[in-house]
Design brief:
The protein is built from 19 helices and no strands. By secondary structure, it is mainly alpha-helical. The protein has 2 domains: 224 residues, Up-down Bundle (Growth Hormone, Chain: A), CATH 1.20.1250; 214 residues, Growth Hormone, Chain: A (Up-down Bundle), CATH 1.20.1250. α15 packs antiparallel against α18 and α17 packs antiparallel against α18. The longest helix has 42 residues. The chain starts with 21 loop residues before the first helix and ends in a 13-residue tail after the last helix. It catalyses: L-lysyl-L-lysine(out) = L-lysyl-L-lysine(in); L-lysyl-glycine(out) = L-lysyl-glycine(in); L-histidyl-glycine(out) = L-histidyl-glycine(in); L-arginyl-L-alpha-amino acid(out) = L-arginyl-L-alpha-amino acid(in). Pfam families: MFS_1.
Length: 497
Amino acid sequence: MPTSTDDALPIVENEEARPPSPASVARRSPQDNELDLQPSGCGSSMCCNPTSGVHRFIALIFMCLLGFGSYFCYDNPGALQEVFKHDLNITTTEFTLIYSIYSWPNVVLCFIGGFLIDRVFGIRLGTIIYLFILLIGQLIFASGGLLGTFWIMIVGRFIFGIGAESLAVAQNNYAVLWFKGKELNMVFGLQLSVARFGSTVNFWVMQPIYDYVSKFYADHRAIGVVLLLAAGTCVLSLLCALILGWMDKRAERILQRNTNPSGEIAKLSDVTTFKVSFWMVSIICVAYYVAIFPFIALGKTFFMHRFHFSPDQANNVNSIVYLISAIASPVFGFVIDKTGRNVSWVFCATFTTIGAHALLAFTLLNPYIGMIIMGLSYSMLAASLWPLVALIIPEYQLGTAYGFCQSVQNLGLAVITIVAGMIVDRSDGNYVWVELFFMGWLTVALISTCVIWGYDKKVKGNLNMTPAQRVQYASAMRAANQDNGVYSSDQEPLLDD
């Protein structure tokens, strides 16, 4: 939980808005037009009024760009794999350490990072701090390249990972607190789209940049210079964090928002009080994503062996999932915003992903068919699953909740990738067994989705409601709380304190 009202982020959500108290109105000066319910002057224009769609769209641009530098720099080594191994004189095992050192610490650290957003930093300061850590890590990584010292590069990558994963938690918090109840599903889809675009741009430009830089610098120094240039994207993201923080603080002042009206304080032990539906969402975060990312990591060899593709053809079909998700994620988000029924969408996404893996494992149909289905399903899942956390967990605990989801996802990806590789090795390249392994995890995700549906139906929750039903549900909750003289921590009170 933020330690002051300046560290709390407003939910730009008209249906949950409440008028400022008479005392706060009386304290305003006549010139303080920005705080009027109908702002005048600059505050009344579409781009300056925090309640307007234009203003929120501008904030969304900066919100999406927060993670661009992180995703661009994360795959810098992947775009230059052979260059790294040759110029730094490292083995393939040493090269994979660049990626594993990023994931393992975040099994714990991004959970702590989310808690620090809730309890210590607040969303604005936390975002800036994590982006600064990310930038420092990339600079150290580049310095190791300049010096040709591999252990310095590993230290930089470790620091980079701490900032990057905690930044993802902060980015999720920003999305929820600005768009909950409006276009939240589309926003999560759009953030995924920009993330995938950052990774794609990295693969497009890093090799040409290296080819140019290598005309002036030799060996490891060229890698160092290229990585320093890539750090410019992190600087861009840091500037976006500063601008978004200013916009958020201004919006909070104008709208007089309080995201934690009950005054409860986030604690690490809060995770033990989370509902069954949250634990099921966490299981889906692991069980679904381990059937996507490890598969793509092994995909090139899979397509070469099973479908006899050339290396270039295998790379092309293997990249389909990311390319489709960059386009389809915001589209699915828009549709889910209009229809609701998030749990049903999660079920459909998981079921169709099982079908995609089955096509690839048991048929010789053109693999583009299976990969296109997988890409569409992945986009559907991302746009419908992550917003569920915001419907389950109170705002003052969102950082802790999203941090926990990121942590268990990192643990799952780190372990399952290794296990999947072992299955391939022990089956003498028979990828049917590893496909059955992935389908088994997807079945776990499917069962968890059914548990969410059953539990939500039992407690008469709002996870699988339409948008109109959720508005009625929120109104009924506020009315019931007013009648009882109390309100829950995740609902806005009807009256001033």
